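Researcher: Structure for this, please.
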Amino acid sequence: MFSKGWLAHYSELVNTWAKRSSSRHDAEDAAHDSIAQWLAMDASAIDNPRSYLHRSVRNRLTDQHRRSQVLDVVAFDELPEEDHPLLTDPDAHVRTAQLLASLKEALAELPLKCRQVFLWHRLEGYTQQEVAQRLGISVSMVEKYMIKAARHLRNRLQQYDPH
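Model: Predicted structure, token format:
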């Protein structure tokens, strides 16, 4: 039933959520992901497909918005002098060099597009939308690459965490 029925809801989902999210592209990505997830599961347990899809799209857009608001990244050279971290012990420069070498190595281990997304977004300050346009991929894919890169770097660099 649903394999035909999803198409009946697609336009409504995109139009409704494009107005609410102010981005048709994000609404299309969220609707696509929600429909794909629903097609992959046992849809017979869902009583109201329309409500389920609207809720799923809303949740995806909310998650996307929250993720985009989590970090406010400021370049080191843009920090006021009083906010610069102090390196007072004699081994600090050695540890910094080791961390930098490990970071370069960890970044080199990432797939090319994943690495490019991370570098453009985090280091060069491009928005996720700008990165998506430059690479010809969706914003959702940019977010997935960012999550993959962050997990990889966190795992590879955890030895440098002071906690």
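Researcher: Any notable elements?
Model: The two ends are 53 Å apart (CA to CA). Residues 77-160 form a domain with the Arc Repressor Mutant, subunit A fold (CATH 1.10.10.10).
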